[in-house]
Amino acid sequence: MLYRGLSLSPKYTLPTPMLHSSNLIGAVVLTLTSASLAPAPAWLQAPAQGAQEAKEIRCDLDLTRPGAMSDIISNALDLGFGMDLDTTLAYLNAESKRHATGGELLAASASHFGLSKEALTAEVEKYRHCNCDHPPIVEGQITARSLAATDEEPASIDAASPEVTQFARDVTVHVVLHEMAHALVREFDLPVLANEETLADAFATYYLTTHMPDRAFDVIQARTRSLMIEANEVPRNEWSVDGEHNSDARRAFQIAAVAIAADPEKYRPIAVEVGMSASKISGAADYGTEIHRSWRRLLRDLWLPEGHPVKEARFKADEDIPFIKNLCAEGLRDELTAALTRFDWHSQVTIHLTSSEGGAAWSRSRRTITVNREYVQRFVAQGKTLKD
Predict the structure, then answer these.
(1) 98, 116, 150 — which closes off a domain?
(2) N- or C-end of the chain: fewer Cβ atoms within 10 A?
(3) Which of 150, 183, 206 is the last residue of a domain?
(4) Burial class (CB within 10 angstroms; exposed 0-12, middle 13-18, buried 19+) of 266
(5) What pLDDT is stored for residue 242 in this prediction?
(6) What is the pLDDT of residue 380?
């Protein structure tokens, strides 16, 4: 199993398995008409009448859809053939829009990468369930469960208190929306004309003030307070000026500025907390308006039509761990699910609250936003310092 580090900053570093997301909606049967595909694997054939899996395992992965097939082909090319991930994703993202069926995309991909249809089909069969939680349906298939059992280090779950504060939940909402911005950029090829981390903070704040106004103040205040706590852990003259992320204090200031643009009076207390003067608040109300307008125009074609059934979004949490179960309480699950399902994703995108150690990150290859227990526990500790 090949692992590559996805490093965003010291506090946003997550070792990520290079597995690509798979769409879990629709039927499992894919039909390819080619004499060279004989004998076809079981998933390419119509099931025999009355045939049933012994364990009644059901998977709704629909490989007739080019988007779903693209995900699995990228797994096969990367993990099965060792091809460069960026190269294969660039081809598949463009090519999947040109084909009506997954079968056509598979044939075109085999030809493009100099592979036989038989060889690529075999690897697609092997990795088709690599992001599914169920056991292998056919012997030899790779699934997320089997990989976790054989390749991943066991999660270090200590006896830490399962207590989760509302402050920690509030910070987590902003963190997930920040990572969702990275997902939107990657999945919809949104333009990035400046620092993407600053863009992500702006999106999270825009989304809160526009689409979650009743929760926006508490969430934005919690996030800016969390960042200021981290900023004050080191002397000001040691604040970092390198890397993708701005300093924590600078991030808090910018988040407050975007909030001010939405409603100067409502969010003024937050701006004052992060050190904004009256003139800075006035300036933010001016230039921040352009940020809101830009996001409004950029997102208007990405919303899922009202009443449209949501298929390409999933919320996943390790709720067998008391801390994660408590984190999901008090409406957090519903809030994050509602945000994720507003967008018309072309392939499955997942939010995963996990019991592992590490920070928070968007994984391009797995199409998953991961938030680790260890990171949220830091927010719990920070919230307690505010009460002391």
Answers:
(1) 150
(2) C
(3) 150
(4) middle
(5) 67
(6) 95
